[in-house]
Design a protein that fits this description.
Blueprint (H helix, E strand, L loop, with lengths): L6 E7 L3 H12 L7 E7 L15 E7 L6 H11 L4 E4 L4 E3 L3 H12 L3 E10 L2 E5 L5 E2 L1 H6 L11 E3 H8 L12 H12 L2 E13 L5 H4 L1 H14 L7 H16 L5 H14 L4 H11 L4 H10 L5
Parallel strand pairs: 1-2, 1-4, 2-3, 6-10
Antiparallel strand pairs: 4-9, 5-10, 6-7, 6-9, 8-10
Protein name: Glycosyltransferase
GO molecular function, one term: transferase activity
Pfam families: Glycos_transf_2
Length: about 300
């Protein structure tokens, strides 16, 4: 691989033009001396082709999702169209810090790695929270013991050949696309050498009211069940099993007609780890003492999700 390989940044989007332009500015302002191309992939929305163009070193291509509707299909459309030796993801409401690409490419080359993740700075209202994954490399046992939420998908960079021919594309079968980034990182840690850049390299914008999936509790419950079935090793750690059951309990407790199931899942989470707070929060929601969206808003203020 060349000392400054071409990097393709895949940005999946729908209808958030102002945020998308901020994401594009973040890519254009990289201090990386090599070429960066951007694949903007519109999912289920008319594309804005006026965004295409740029110079030879920061070229932007606009296309539509030609695969399964949703984030996973949109990302895969961009991956398959990529011409770079490396592929990076960026959510349309995030922005790369200026040195992000340069530092991650350098680390991949120095360590002869297959990929790299980095930390993030979360912007929530007037709050700023920094989250950085621990360690220098993501091992399989690490990612199945710890969700590593600091390793945000907007920090992912992979060798294109590794991503397409060894790791495989983003799983488009996950219900609602919930947890597709976690699934990809689990598989990457099993299949290759994934390094950690030990600092925040991405600005992540969290919106008041929570993300799409924090409001779609059925998506969370179905997605967690799918991930457990696909990666049964997640349940070998009491810590991870308790956290997953706590998430599932909270989702069920937030759904009408599923609160009794939520109580059972919450009890299971607490039995596995009495320090896991999600089980108790789920019980509060199931009893009516807590409102699920209020809980999510309070957690987001601390840079955390359910």
């Amino acid at each position: 691989m060349a000392s400054h390989p071409t990097v393709t940044v895949v940005i999946a989007t729908q209808d958030r033009p102002e945020l998308l332009r901020q994401a594009l500015d973040g890519v254009r302002n990289q201090d990386y001396p090599g070429d960066i191309e951007v694949q903007v992939v519109y999912d289920n929305h008319a594309p804005d082709y006026t965004l295409a163009g740029g110079d030879a070193h920061r070229r932007v291509t606009v296309r539509t999702n030609t695969r399964s509707p949703g984030l996973a299909g949109a990302r895969n459309s961009g991956i398959l169209a990529a011409t770079g030796e490396l592929v990076a993801f960026c959510d349309d409401d995030d922005a790369f810090k200026p040195s992000k690409v340069r530092e991650q490419v350098q680390l991949i080359l120095e360590e002869d790695a297959d990929g790299c993740v980095a930390g993030i700075e979360i912007h929530y209202g007037d709050k700023l929270i920094t989250r950085v994954p621990q360690g220098t490399q993501i091992h399989s046992e690490d990612i199945t013991r710890d969700r590593m939420t600091g390793a945000h998908p907007s920090s992912y960079v992979f060798r294109h050949d590794f991503l397409v021919n060894t790791l495989g594309l983003v799983d488009e079968s996950i219900p609602y696309g919930y947890g597709e980034d976690y699934d990809l990182l689990i598989r990457a840690a099993k299949s290759g050498r994934i390094m950690v850049l030990p600092r925040a390299a991405v600005d992540v914008l969290w919106h008041r009211g929570g993300s799409y999936f924090s409001r779609r509790w059925e998506a969370m419950e179905a997605g967690i069940n799918y991930l457990i079935g696909k990666h049964p090793e997640l349940l070998t750690s009491q810590h991870t099993a308790s956290w997953l059951q706590g998430q599932r309990a909270f989702a069920l407790a937030s759904l009408r007609g599923k609160r009794s199931e939520g109580v059972k899942a919450a009890a299971q989470s607490i039995r596995l780890n009495w320090r896991q707070p999600r089980g108790y929060l789920a019980l509060g929601v199931a009893s009516g003492a807590l409102n699920s969206q209020w809980v999510v808003n309070r957690l987001n203020e601390r840079g955390r999700g359910i």
